[in-house]
Amino acid sequence: SVDCSFSRGVCDWKQDADDDFDWNPADRDRGDGYYMAVPAFVGHKNDMGRLKLLLTDLKPKSSYCLIFSYRLAGEKVGKLRVFLANKKTAPVWEENKGKDEKWRTGKIEIFQGAETTNSVTFESERGKGKTGEIGVDNVTLISGPCPED
């Protein structure tokens, strides 16, 4: 398993230069490191911010599971989507409202065919809300299919 979390991780994260705003580090409540967040008041409605995880050593014809914590806090805060580089058109995962301020776990199966996935993009779309934030943390890549809950 590969730890891609932001405070201690070994992965290569890049801000997208062609989007509307950057993701920023935010301190965790318990003070152990930070997560990446987009506050609700940044930018205008429908603006996008993309944070890209570069994947270099994935083996072809094998499966992986990307596990991450996410939070959509605040009313009408926006959308969080995840795209895989070789499936550019549609998101492989999307969430558009938080039931509460709690962190939840997202899981995405990555099946490597002959063409390997070389990046995963977390995209935040600004909503109408003025409070709250969209956050991502504890990103981990494990080989094999995603575990059942």
TrEMBL record:
Lineage start: Eukaryota, Metazoa, Chordata, Craniata, Vertebrata
Pfam families: MAM
Taxonomic superkingdom: Eukaryota
Residues in MAM domain copies: 2-148
InterPro entries in alphabetical order: ConA-like_dom_sf, MAM_dom, MAM_domain-containing
Organism name: Motacilla alba (White wagtail)
Protein name: EGFL6 protein
GO cellular component term, pick one: membrane
